[in-house]
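ARCHIVE CARD
Drawer: 12
Card no.: 0347
Subject: one protein chain, sequence and derived structure
Cross-reference: see card 0346
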Amino acid sequence: MRAPAMVIVALTSVTSVIPWADAYTPKTTEAVTTEAAATQAAQTQTLVMSYWGLTAAEYERYQQLMKGIRGFISESNLPPLMALGIHAKTPQERRQYADRLVRVLYQDTERVLAFEREMQAAWRRFGKPMLDTAKIEAVLAQKRRRKAALVAGEAKSGRLALFVAANDRRCPACLSEARRLAARRDLSGLDIYVVDSKEDDAIRQWARRAGITPDQVKNRKITLNHGASYYALHFGAKLPLPAVFARQGGRLVALPGGGG
């Protein structure tokens, strides 16, 4: 008769474990990932606020700005103080953010310069300069000589391109420069680009004043060209006139001193 009692006790012991087993629910992969992301975001916020000296409200506003138009226009690593300053609500607030940003950048610059000074001292301790400036200058000088020789050769025997303005007030020296180059017999040709006139007659009249003859134009020794579009496209209409270039293949190489 005691056997059933033992069975009952055994079953009771087993059933006492079941509520604990039901209460344990393993976390899904998504839950673990979300929790890790939240932890990382909190750590990032703490670091950003600490480095840039932001309040929680400023950090929140910075986050909102980078999710809006500022994030589309600027790089993702835009300094928070700069983003806040750009979108400051008052002049006083803008000045405050500017002061704070400059202070942070100043401190960082001091750190960089301090380390640079230590590096220079380390090179001196090794008994060697960080850079062999004499060797670098020699290489650069050799490149300059080669370029000068190449350009000089083009200037003496190749075609030149001359950019001028027909208006004497805009370019007082253009007429005399064109006259000087047109008289050179060592050139294979001269291409003149007039940047301030779209009228053929006006360009022809200017050419006659420069001493350019119809024969020079007919035999292509000299060409007269409308140069406004080319001038604006390649030089942004800011090139000082007159400007002389040597042709190297399809490129124009500026000649110092007006082309010799």
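Annotation on reverse: The longest strand covers residues 159-164. The two ends are 129 Å apart (CA to CA).
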